[in-house]
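Sample A.
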Amino acid sequence: MNDILTTAKSWLTDFFDPAVKKEIQHLIENDPEELKDRFYKNMEFGTGGMRGIMGVGTNRINKYTLGKSTQGLSNYLHRVYPDAELKVVIAYDCRHNSDTLARTVAEVFSANNIKVYLFSDLRTTPELSFAVRYLDCQAGVVLTASHNPPEYNGYKVYWTDGGQIVPPQDGEIIAEINRLSVEDVRFKAKDDFIELIDKQVDEAFINASVKNGDFNAPGKEDFSIVFTSLHGTSITAIPEVLSRAGYSKVTIIAEQAEPDGNFPTVVSPNPEEPEALTLAMKKAEEIGADMVVGTDPDSDRLGIAVRNLQGKMELLNGNQTMVLMTKFLLDQQKKKGMKGNEFIASTIVSTPMMQSLASAYDVECKTSLTGFKWIAKMIVDHPDQHFVGGGEESFGFMVGDFVRDKDAVTSTLLACEIGATAKANGKSFYQELIQCYADYGLYKERLISLTKKGISGAEEIREMMQDFKENPVKSLDGSKVITVDDYNTSTSTDIKTGKVSAIDLPKSNVLIYTTEDGTRMAARPSGTEPKIKFYFSVNSTLEQTNAYNEGNKALEDKLDRIVSELKLD
């Protein structure tokens, strides 16, 4: 506690704002536990940036922690590009303080003689990714905490290619930041280096989104969509993109259309949570809509609900939408003619069905660690190959490579193209998905996410992962484990033979068990939230589409048994 107190008192110097000093003094005198939580560690700049609770202290998102990261990034840019005219672009979302924090970040860059393009108002994360290359910048930053609760904010860094930073840049930037103290930050802005941007980049991004996501689907005028931005940034782009692509029957949920960092109408602004789409689903039932689309605050994730076989709106999961979107893109590519260098992409915790799909189309499916930065890296690493599309289970998808991150804007348009085409052909989005299961195998996934907050929670998550390593799972629902993949040691172990082979991916704290019948379980701590996540995948064959309900129920029961067996229910 003495070290924590010393660190806290170091924020009482004249370098810090009076309000900051007053709050810290209050905590020192009145709330030692809160003081401990705010100063027991530094807010870490991880492999993609920072995300955490806003407030005063070294373990919080604030002017000083973001300033230090920006100073480190500025130093790194000058070192890597010593003779270049340095340029960065900055965007921010609807969260509290995002606009003022974005301005602070811009001022620090400008104080380091770096040209800054700062969006004049909130914009989507995919537009920021697009803008990095469109404006020929060396880097980009977006102020967002994605779908985290209202008290959070964050800082994501993008590199020259428009993708989030990856090795070796991430480690080198972290080292640069860690060499600094807060007092090293240059906060005094040079206003001539800051330029506000908006309509020109908006227009370029919207045109690119329509170009990449519009496939001239028939029946657009008859396809009814309910859209909600969940108080976030997508309201700045998705309605216009849908309009330009020819969709006129778009109903926007007015109560959620106004950007608001309190997210007042939802428990969590996360389209993965059915509750978040309650208002949109209700409206869809009222007007008989074909599809519901909801996006998270920075518009990189999207949730889609469509009418199931009983005619009721059903929220699909990220694996389901990813498979159908990818199949549609592959069909479009096939019409143009395959060149033999195409690839699709997914992640190690997403559905294995993507591999089955790739095999059927005779294209490669590259698999990465969790996070779209790795998919963006594939595009850079393989310039001789053509990226068609791909995604991950956590409701993210990327259409082509003009954006190098999850893109809910273009993916929304793509989903509507699939739905409109199906409807015009007398089918539905849901029926097309079931046809995929008949063609490529019936797969079903489930995510169990356990929240463990604070210092004790972090330790509990560490102990749970350690226990899985020291006491590995032997079987799942009676099927023996045959392979254990430990990404922390980059090793894959064949349980039958004992043979250990290398995994050619960067190290990551992930364990994956695969059984004889193809059942799979993955365990990993979240990199952005105080959670440990368990991903399950089971599969069977589907001989006929009319047997879907029975087959789906059997897999649902199997997942129930596995979760109960592992005491995660």
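Sample B.
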Amino acid sequence: MTDRLSRRTTLKAGVAVAAAGLVPAPLRAATTPKIKLRILETTDLHVAVFPYDYYRDKGDDTMGLARTAAVLAAARAEATNALLFDNGDVIQGNPMGDYMAYQRGLDGGAVHPIVKAMNLLSYDCGTMGNHEFNYGLDYLGKAMMQGANFPLVCANLLKPDGSTYLPPYKVLERTLRDEAGGPQPVRIGVIGFVPPQIMQWDQGHLAGHVTTTDIVDAARKFVPQLRKEGAEIVVALCHSGIAGGTRAGGEENAALFLAEVPGIDVILTGHQHLVFPGPDFAGIDGVDAERGTLHGIPAVMAGFWGSHLGVIDLDLEHDGTAWKVAGFKSEARPIYDRKDRKVTPRVDSRPDILAAAQPEHDATLAYVRQPVGEITAPITSFFSLVADDPSVQIVSRAQLWYIGPLLAGTAAAGLPLLSAAAPFKAGGRGGPDYYTSVPAGPIAIKNVADLYLYPNTVRAVRISGAIVREWLERSAGIFNRIDPAKTEEQPLIDTSFPSYNFDVIDGVTYRIDLSQASRYDGDGKLVAPDAHRITDLQFQGKPIDEKQEFVVATNNYRAGGGGSFPGLDGKNIVITAPDTNRDVLVRYIHEQGRINPTADGNWSFAPLPKTVVVTFPSAPAAAQAVPAGLTIEPAGDAGDGFAKYRLVFGG
């Protein structure tokens, strides 16, 4: 165990030691009990009850609460005292979530299948994630609070009158067993937080109904209250990730700053779909990525889709007034191993968890297998980050088809219409199987959901040609800077940049100059004002007029400011559509009947010398699906099951 003793605790311990010589040994032992308490976390489950990928319509050993539950059972068996918490993003994230929200519903007191599964695991408390709001507040209330046998807390989501939407915190009164086997009453405080950006990402559902406050500000308000109400140990359920830098307020990923709030003993993090402790967070000031601490506070992040169980073991000591944390150990336990591109499950699914959601699982399979049209060629996303790609192009075309008629009769009618879309399944954190791959022939709802993962709704924004350019500059931040003079290998992709922020804008043509620095950093801040990666930007064969106004079809996340794109803050939306982008895609394919999925090559990289060795990871299967016009070479193993490819330039 690693000790974390504050100066005040150390002084109190010294006083206790000095006094110990004045009392009999049996009395000393009785007045200084010790407790081992295990804190367990699930996070970002995203409706993954089964180890099953509905998009590929096949089993997947990297996911599933039924598998996490088996790891949980073992972790509980090892511990005398254990508490289990969930950190949010529960009801949305796969076709079962959409089926329940859009097809089945939760009327008449029905309980959501993942909540039924969670009820079997005896959670002590939970909080909400940002995706809980994707289907609206009414559905959220039914899905998360209808039939759940565990409480929810959230301190920074407010009603219009300023009161919290949920209780901000809860004090759990538990009788734990000390190391001598004796019962000890302990009061554990639990407080929850959600990213304040939900007001941008789901403003159509939330505006006028709720507001959010900064995570750290909310903690500074409520943690002292929690302590005054008798909480001896405080656990923060923070559906927010870990990021460094200087706090400005309103951060999406605020866990590191939250750790500086006095009175918090443990932080359970999530949202980023990463694992902590672990190398993903190495090198950030204030983060110990090996021990699992944020400014010395024990923390854990348990992956996503049930891939891991977060485990924090606390050593508690009583200082004569209250229980304190004297030591800890943090880890994230996986449900599988990956070696040589092969996934091996560590545990079997718990049958009772599967049974809890079996009817909805079966209904979801029938739902996603319904055909909606036909495609004449395969659609894959293996190369969607390095070339114009049909998996992105088909989404853009559907958005144009849908938004065009809606503009008639509006103030924006007659303006040129563009469309922005991004690749969602492009490997990355999801692993080497996390790519869209739809064979030629009938295309079903499951395939459409594969092309568009999220239940975003369609928006259109009115912007200038100058903002079109900056939008593309921000998107081009996914690429590392390439030195044309180097002959050693240079990786192309910045793996910290989410692929869903790599927007391709159709209706214009452009090139990306990789020799230039990115104008924007990962948070969307302008850091290189003299750099310009976007070159040869043209509209209708002529250089774009930066004063010309355009309408761009996109989604509610981007239009509302998601991803911190310049000029996009929700104030220039001209069309707020009621339909999801995914439903629009289904309707487009259904109306067309038969589609030839091609990309028009409206963007490409500016030439580089042939001697430059630029590499990128993709699926091993990508080698058999190289599109025409793209020249690549196999370049070995990229690790974690990925293959490495070299992008060959003609310059």
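B remarks: The chain has a mean pLDDT of 92. The chain has 16 helices and 38 strands.
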